[in-house]
Structure formats: C-alpha cells, structure tokens
Amino acid sequence: MGHKINPVAFRLGIQKDWSSRWYSEKNRIVFLREDFSIREFLKNKLVKASVDGIDIVRSGNSISISIRSARPGMIIGRGGKGLDELQQGIKKVIAKIHTEIKTKSNSTIKIEIEEIKKPELFARLVGKNIAEQLEKRIPFRRAMKMMVEKVMAEPGIKGIKVLAKGRLGGAEIARREQLTRGKIPLQNLRADIDYAHEEAHTTYGVIGVKVWLYKGDKFEDK
Predict the structure, then answer these.
(1) What is the model's pLDDT at position 222?
(2) Predicted model pTM
(3) Does residue 160 contact residue 121 with C-beta atoms inside 8 Å?
(4) What is d(CA 176, CA 208) in angstroms, rounded to the nearest whole number?
(5) What are phi and psi of 44, to 5 degrees?
(6) Which helix (H) or strand (E) holds 29?
(7) Closest Cα partner for 122 from 208, 51, 185?
(8) Distance (Å, rounded) from C-alpha 165 to C-alpha 157?
(9) Which residues in the chain belong to E strands, given as ranges?
(10) Residue 11 region, left (φ>0) first, then alpha (ψ -120 to 50), else beta?
(11) Tens digit of each residue's pLDDT (9 = 90 or more) over 4-27
C-alpha cells in the first residue's frame, strides 16, 4: 500500500512555516481550542472571500491574525465595518471557550489582511475555483482543463496536478479523474509544493478536488 502524507506538512520546519506560531506550556490546550475555533469561525464567515490561509501569532496577551485573500474588499467592508464585525465575532468565540472552562480572557485581537494579486499561484484558490465551477454544473473536464491551462501560463509554475473524485457528471458510480501538466516532484524536500483539498457540494453529492502546484526548488541560503 502507498504511504501518503500532506506535502505541506512533510515540509514543515524545512521550507514551510507553521500557520500557528506560539509556545505555551501552561495554556497550550486552551490556545489550541481557541485557534481551532477562530479558524472555523473565519472559514464559515469568509466563504466567498477567496481566503488562501490564516496565520495566528501570539505574543503575551495579544493575538495577531493574518488573513491572505484575493478579495480583501469583501473582508474589510465599507469603512472597515467588516473588520469590526470579525473582531467582535472572534471575541465572542474566545469568550465562549473561557466560559466553559470558567476562566477569563484578556487577549487583544489584531487582524491584518494580505492581498493576493495572482490567485493562480495558490493551490487552495485554484481548488476553490474548480469547486465553484462544478457547483455551477460546468462539465468537470472543461473546468479542470481551463484552470490547468490558466495556471501553467504563469511564469512561476513548473507543474500542476488536479484530481477530482466523486460522482462526476452525475454518474451512478463514483470515480476519479486526474489532469497533470509539467512535473510534481513530491519526494524532494527542496521542491516548493503547494497543496490543497477543496470540496464541491453538488446535487449528486460531494466531489473532492485536490490540487498540487510545483513552483520550483528552494535552496538554503549560504
């Protein structure tokens, strides 16, 4: 049997960094619960904002949340109203956790938005694009092929692999379809591989979409 691992997790600490950066021997359980709840809240709140990733950095009593998005205007809102709503929502999520464990939270929350100018360079946004097209009943082969050609047109991309699994086209039996361009050296730790898994919720069921992007090799600076 094949031994599979997430390409991003495989490179953590070598060329990839953790999405949550903090250390606490005393409060690690509470902080982990807060991180999971914050990510779940933002995921549900920013479904249409084309979010690629969320980084959480803690320092003392402050929580810095960095959101990478291709549509920052949808998050910020008119006059920064969207950011204020997010901040209040996160405070309620954290307060709920501390109410359950009967403690008080005095954390200050800071939210930063990073704009993504080229969504084609990020696997999660490519996967979301394909999933959205499948939900709009666009033929899966056409959606995959168009996106692959668009991504390969970018100068920084060396290879791409897209895998779709489920009742494709409304078929009775689930199957998998794969489309590859260029090369994807998954076993090389120096290879800069971006990976994401997204889901398309169709009338026939859930279709999984996996995307691998190869952006060249990274070497340690001498």
Answers:
(1) 44
(2) 0.89
(3) no
(4) 9
(5) -75, -35
(6) helix 28-45
(7) 51
(8) 24
(9) 20-21, 51-59, 62-69, 108-115, 159-166, 175-182, 191-202, 205-217
(10) alpha
(11) 889 999 999 888 899 999 998 888
To 10 degrees, what angle do helices 123-135 and 140-152 make? 150
Q: Which amino acid is at 195?
A: Y
Tokens of 128: 């979301």
| Those residues with Cβ within 8 angstroms of residue 51's Cβ, 6 or more apart along the chain or in another chain | 42, 43, 67, 68, 69, 124
- Tokens 């791409």 locate to 160
> CA 218, CA 191: separation in Å to the nearest integer?
6
Tokens matching residue 145: 């092929």
* Closest C-alpha to 217, from 195, 187, 196: 187
Task: Return the pLDDT at 102.
Answer: 86
pLDDT digits (tens, 9 = 90+) for 154-167: 998 999 999 999 99
Going along the chain from its start, the domains and CATH numbers come out as 7-115 (3.30.300.20), 119-217 (3.30.1140.32)
Query: Measured between alpha carbons, how far is 204 from 140 in angstroms, rounded to an integer?
Result: 13
Name the residue with tokens 């803690």.
58
Strands 51-59, 175-182: pairing is unpaired
Q: Which two tokens stand for residue 40?
A: 């779940």
Name the residue with tokens 């929350």.
Answer: 109
> How much is the CA Rg of the chain, to the nearest whole Å?
19
Q: Which amino acid is at 212?
A: W
Q: Distance between CA 129 and CA 52 in Å, rounded?
A: 12
